């Protein structure tokens, strides 16, 4: 059974399956090839410049101070290693499916299923977070026009209840309610009551997801045009913010640069990395590119470089305009301009934030259906997930299901834990893609981008030695208290073992330094994510494996092929016995 779990698909068979299509006669050949380098670069920017730059960067700056710019550099370098590995895979495996397809070629079926299941965290669940953030920006924009939506239409039940109970506790202690506490009580009291329960739902988030699902349903051309327009607009806004912001920068706010040390900077890993998770969404559109082998690598790398420069400059502007201690807010860009008495810029930023997060929603809603389409081709999901619309040339059923999975939870879910889960799913994919480049047979090399080979025999051991030196105290504590170690320390020890193994293997096999560092950097960022998110991730993976063994393993096309081969072999033996008589065994 172990051999069948790790059975791999060759590049030739993947290309053939995608060309053959499904039972309805509409396979990948029905997809429209319209995307070029510019479109792919814009899609990457659309996915990266969104909720991170307009929202989560504030919390990260509060923890890390001005030094948060270093975390963007570290994250960009980490993503850069992974992007180069994605680029090589995109050239050699120019098929939709992203990391799922790459894992099927490099590691085998069960690993491909695991990564495909993890990618749901990145795309579908990640979009829930973005939709909730969009709702907040949209409400702020309406307030600028003196339009007030009822509070119960803008919040999830859990957050509403927590805020109400907190306000009630303050009153019981004789405290004075602030503006937000008074709003929480008003929201609770004004909410409709059905069956004795107060009703809360995030209506704007639900509506925007439905609109985005419709756009992605009717065609890739419409999605491309919408994305390109929004990207041009929001890049212009971000550049304007950077230019205007530098006029209000006070260099004294950059000191101390690392107020909480590098540990404080690393606290923002999930918030900052969440901003970068979208560049790999480009790879899901491989079969809609005019020349995937040439254009996909360029689109990934161009978008990553542009976004990194923008994020570093924004981080320096934010922490230079006000003290990092004031940035624990959900709308940091608007906040800093309000803080320097430039409210008109704050309103303008609220409008651009609505556009920015809309483009992120659009790109993610494009990505998830195409991964399911690839999984359906392989038999791991029902055939309906791979059906292509005859008129719109999109994976219509997968698009509808993605819309439902994202839209319904946005009505009642809180976004805090979802951000961390999304980061885990993405980093997990990055680790496997970087690792996969090392094990992918070199005979599969094709034209297009090829990962530069840099012998890691000496570089990787030096990096490993530096890691051991810098974290020697943590390692010593973890080993001494192994029996009492929490999940965070267990993960740290697992990472140390992984790093040791990769270092030894690199010395022996002379692995290229880029994919090895891609694995090690991404794996380290993984262990910095809080334990509670890991616990839910393990639950999610458990559910995924149950589905695989009950459906995917039995329905896999590789299983069907194996059964046909075994049947043909038995038939051949039977024919031979008829001709030669029964054989003595």
Automatic annotation (TrEMBL):
<feature type="transmembrane region" description="Helical">
    <location>
        <begin position="68"/>
        <end position="89"/>
    </location>
</feature>
<feature type="transmembrane region" description="Helical">
    <location>
        <begin position="231"/>
        <end position="249"/>
    </location>
</feature>
<keyword id="KW-1133">Transmembrane helix</keyword>
<feature type="transmembrane region" description="Helical">
    <location>
        <begin position="110"/>
        <end position="134"/>
    </location>
</feature>
<feature type="transmembrane region" description="Helical">
    <location>
        <begin position="199"/>
        <end position="219"/>
    </location>
</feature>
<feature type="transmembrane region" description="Helical">
    <location>
        <begin position="300"/>
        <end position="324"/>
    </location>
</feature>
<feature type="compositionally biased region" description="Basic and acidic residues">
    <location>
        <begin position="566"/>
        <end position="579"/>
    </location>
</feature>
<dbReference type="GO" id="GO:0016020">
    <property type="term" value="C:membrane"/>
</dbReference>
<feature type="transmembrane region" description="Helical">
    <location>
        <begin position="392"/>
        <end position="412"/>
    </location>
</feature>
<dbReference type="Pfam" id="PF13906">
    <property type="entry name" value="AA_permease_C"/>
</dbReference>
<keyword id="KW-0813">Transport</keyword>
<feature type="transmembrane region" description="Helical">
    <location>
        <begin position="418"/>
        <end position="440"/>
    </location>
</feature>
<feature type="transmembrane region" description="Helical">
    <location>
        <begin position="537"/>
        <end position="554"/>
    </location>
</feature>
<feature type="transmembrane region" description="Helical">
    <location>
        <begin position="344"/>
        <end position="367"/>
    </location>
</feature>
<feature type="transmembrane region" description="Helical">
    <location>
        <begin position="261"/>
        <end position="279"/>
    </location>
</feature>
<dbReference type="GO" id="GO:0015171">
    <property type="term" value="F:amino acid transmembrane transporter activity"/>
</dbReference>
<feature type="region of interest" description="Disordered">
    <location>
        <begin position="566"/>
        <end position="585"/>
    </location>
</feature>
<keyword id="KW-0472">Membrane</keyword>
<feature type="transmembrane region" description="Helical">
    <location>
        <begin position="452"/>
        <end position="470"/>
    </location>
</feature>
<dbReference type="Pfam" id="PF13520">
    <property type="entry name" value="AA_permease_2"/>
</dbReference>
<feature type="transmembrane region" description="Helical">
    <location>
        <begin position="490"/>
        <end position="508"/>
    </location>
</feature>
<feature type="transmembrane region" description="Helical">
    <location>
        <begin position="513"/>
        <end position="531"/>
    </location>
</feature>
<feature type="transmembrane region" description="Helical">
    <location>
        <begin position="40"/>
        <end position="62"/>
    </location>
</feature>
<feature type="domain" description="Cationic amino acid transporter C-terminal">
    <location>
        <begin position="513"/>
        <end position="556"/>
    </location>
</feature>
<keyword id="KW-0812">Transmembrane</keyword>
<protein>
    <recommendedName>
        <fullName>Cationic amino acid transporter C-terminal domain-containing protein</fullName>
    </recommendedName>
</protein>
<dbReference type="InterPro" id="IPR029485">
    <property type="entry name" value="CAT_C"/>
</dbReference>
<dbReference type="InterPro" id="IPR002293">
    <property type="entry name" value="AA/rel_permease1"/>
</dbReference>
């Amino acid at each position: 059974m172990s051999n069948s779990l790790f059975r791999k698909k060759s590049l030739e068979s993947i290309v053939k399956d995608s060309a053959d299509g499904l039972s309805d006669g509409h396979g990948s050949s029905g997809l429209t090839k319209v995307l070029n380098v510019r479109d792919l670069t814009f899609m990457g920017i659309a996915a990266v410049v969104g909720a991170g730059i307009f929202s989560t960067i504030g919390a990260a700056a509060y923890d890390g101070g001005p030094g948060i710019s270093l975390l963007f550099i570290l994250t960009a370098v980490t993503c850069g290693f992974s992007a180069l590995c994605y680029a090589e895979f995109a050239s050699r495996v120019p098929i939709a499916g992203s990391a799922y397809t790459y894992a099927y070629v490099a590691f085998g079926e069960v690993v491909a299923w695991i990564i495909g299941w993890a990618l749901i965290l990145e795309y579908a669940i990640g979009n829930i977070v973005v939709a909730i953030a969009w709702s907040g920006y949209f409400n702020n924009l309406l307030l600028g026009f003196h339009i007030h939506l009822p509070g119960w239409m803008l919040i999830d039940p859990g957050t509403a209840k927590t805020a109400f109970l907190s306000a009630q506790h303050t009153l019981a202690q004789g405290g004075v309610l602030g503006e937000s506490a008074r709003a929480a009580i008003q929201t609770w009291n004004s909410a409709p009551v059905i069956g004795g329960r107060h009703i809360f739902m995030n209506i704007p988030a639900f509506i925007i997801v439905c609109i985005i699902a419709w756009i992605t349903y009717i065609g890739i051309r419409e999605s491309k045009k919408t994305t390109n327009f929004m990207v041009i607009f929001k890049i212009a806004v971000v550049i304007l913010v950077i230019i205007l912001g530098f006029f209000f920068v006070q260099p004294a706010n950059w000191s101390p640069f690392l107020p909480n040390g590098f540990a404080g900077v690393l606290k923002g890993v999930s918030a900052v990395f969440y901003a970068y998770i979208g560049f790999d969404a480009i790879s899901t559109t491989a079969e809609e590119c005019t020349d995937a082998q040439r254009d996909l690598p360029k689109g990934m790398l161009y978008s990553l470089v542009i976004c990194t420069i923008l994020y570093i400059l924004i981080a320096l502007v934010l922490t230079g305009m006000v003290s990092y201690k004031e940035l624990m807010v959900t709308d940091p860009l608007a906040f800093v301009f309000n803080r320097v008495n430039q409210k008109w810029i704050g309103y303008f930023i609220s409008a651009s934030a609505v556009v920015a997060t809309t483009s992120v929603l659009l790109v993610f809603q494009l990505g998830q259906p195409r991964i399911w389409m690839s999984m359906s081709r392989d038999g791991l999901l029902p055939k309906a997930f791979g059906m292509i619309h005859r008129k719109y040339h999109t994976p219509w059923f997968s698009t509808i299901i993605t819309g439902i999975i994202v839209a319904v939870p946005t009505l009642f879910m809180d976004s805090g834990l979802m951000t961390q889960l999304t980061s885990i799913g993405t980093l997990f994919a990055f680790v496997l893609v970087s690792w996969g480049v090392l094990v992918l047979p070199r005979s599969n090399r094709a034209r297009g981008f090829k990962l530069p080979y840099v012998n890691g025999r000496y570089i990787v051991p030096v990096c490993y030695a530096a890691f051991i030196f810098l974290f020697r105290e943590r390692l010593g504590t973890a080993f001494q208290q192994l029996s009492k170690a929490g999940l965070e320390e267990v993960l740290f020890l697992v990472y140390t073992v992984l790093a040791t193994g990769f270092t030894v293997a690199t010395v022996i096999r002379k692995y290229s330094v880029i994919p090895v560092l891609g694995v090690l950097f991404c794996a380290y960022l993984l262990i910095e994510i809080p334990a509670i998110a890991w616990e839910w991730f393990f639950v999610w993976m458990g559910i995924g494996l149950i589905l695989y063994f009950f459906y995917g393993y039995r329905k896999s096309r590789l299983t069907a092929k194996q059964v046909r081969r075994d049947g043909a072999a038995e038939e051949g033996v039977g024919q031979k016995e008829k001709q030669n008589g029964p054989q003595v065994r």
